Amino acid sequence: MHIDTDRATDWLRSAATAARAATSALARLPGETRDAALRAAARALRAASDEIVAANARDLAAFDAAGGTKAFRDRLALTPARVAAMAQGLDDIADLPDPLARVLAEWTRPNGLVMRRVAQPIGVIGMIYESRPNVGADAAGLCLKAGSAVILRGGSDSFHSARAIHAALIAGLASVGVPEAAVQIPPETDRAYVAAMLGAAGLIDMIIPRGGKSLVERVQREARVPVLAHAEGLCHTYVHAAAEPAMARRIVANAKMRRTGICGATETLLIDAAVAPALLPLIVADLRALGCDFRAGPRARAIVPDLPVAEPGTFDTEWLDSVLSVAVVDDVDHAIRHILAHGSEHTDAIITEDAAVAAHFMNGVDSAVAMWNASTQFCDGGEFGFGAEIGIATGRVHARGPVGLEQLTTFRYHVLGTGQTRP
């Protein structure tokens, strides 16, 4: 479907104007009221579970007809359990402290003026995401709690799911008097709505892209609005010579295969040459038993000869599937150089019993999240205690790592005087 660009632009202008008014209302609401809205939205999601799953079935049927991959189908699929998890996520966000009820810093000047830096809503947020329909509910919940309105543009493959989720959310908001314009979605799947959002300087305060590399690159290239970037998740797990073997096998299996289609899944295994001959065959056997395939460098294939050959570009690939790139490295510095050359600054982990080497690794990589003796799949806002996340920021301005409530606020200043005038 292709629509007139002016129609998308006109819709965006109207939606953003309504969102601005909703943001003003949200910022004045007590935290208890915003929490009540989230709990009402959670109840509405649970009540609409059958309708949401039925709408998702329409999306899945179209996806299957188009021949989509198994991993991306898993990202798209909703079940009653996943709808319940979305609802629980909203309740969890409601349980968190109010991010707007914070004095970030306070000091008194020699003239007696009291300076306060206080948390402030960002305003109107635009969220552009792909495939995973639960992202819309998470983003709506976090933005509402942080006092911002959100315009959600999900992928065309999840359109019916997104509409059903949105209907439940706004029914919950309306039941407690929160403006429905606080959460909006475009009425059609046409990409003209994405272009309208990217060009909405002065209407949208921040764009958050969440999806594949091509989506993020397009947003960064075309946006006339500040972008909180979420790059691809080309995550590494490095097994150091001092790794405990059983722990290494357990972590690598989880980091790769727990859910292969999420951005925190490990895509490349690096293993020290000192332990690779004994340990790599065991790790390969573990993963093969779970259905994993491989692409391996020459040193890894010298140890496990039947591993498929790594082609040019292998170590720059985010598989989002049951495929693992494998390379043997000499030491921790070799591992760091590999990650700096091929990684996406998302999440990288080391497995070792040597604390000094772990510190060297974590300080040496430039990832938004560095881990020691833990699965990369813990890079998730819920696992960080944020209740949920709106994405994993890999840029260098405003926020890095899981973006939760605190990262969805900015600040302003309150200056308290007692009659001071400036000389």
Characterise this structure:
The protein is an alpha/beta fold. The protein has two domains: 238 residues, Aldehyde Dehydrogenase, Chain A, domain 1 (3-Layer(aba) Sandwich); 144 residues, Aldehyde Dehydrogenase, Chain A, domain 2. The protein is built from 14 helices and 15 strands. The strands form four sheets. A six-stranded parallel sheet has the order 9-10-8-7-11-12, with helices on both faces. Strands 5-4-3-6 form a four-stranded parallel sheet, sandwiched between helices. Helix 2 crosses helix 7. The protein is globular and about 75 Å long. The mean pLDDT is 94.
Could you provide a short overview of the structure?
The chain has 423 residues and is of the alpha/beta class.
Q: Total strand count, please?
A: 15
Query: DSSP strand (E) fraction?
Result: 15-25%
Q: Give the proportion of residues in helices.
A: 40-55%
Distance between the termini: 65 Å
The fourth-level CATH homologous superfamily of the largest domain is Aldehyde Dehydrogenase, Chain A, domain 1
Radius of gyration: 23 Å
Contiguous uncertain segments of 5+ residues: none
| CATH architecture label of the largest domain | 3-Layer(aba) Sandwich
| CATH top-level class of the largest domain | Alpha Beta
Structure classification: alpha/beta
